[in-house]
Amino acid sequence: MSFFTMSRLASLDVRWAGIQQGNDNLYMMEHSNPFFELMVVAEGPIYLQVESEQLELNSGDIFILKPWERHYSWKKTNPKANFFWVQFSCTPSLKEVGDLASGIDYSLLEHQDLRTFEYEHVDELILPRHFQSPRPYELLSQFEKLLETFSKPEVYFRFRSTLQFAQILESIALSILVESKNQRYIPESFIVYRKLVRLLDEAYTDNLSKEEIERSMDRTYEYLCQIFKKYSGTNIIKYTNMLKIQKAKFLLKSTNRSVQEISQEVGISDTFYFSKLFKQYEKISPTAFRERMHPS
Question: How far apart are CA 158 and CA 176, in angstroms?
Answer without folding.
Answer: 27
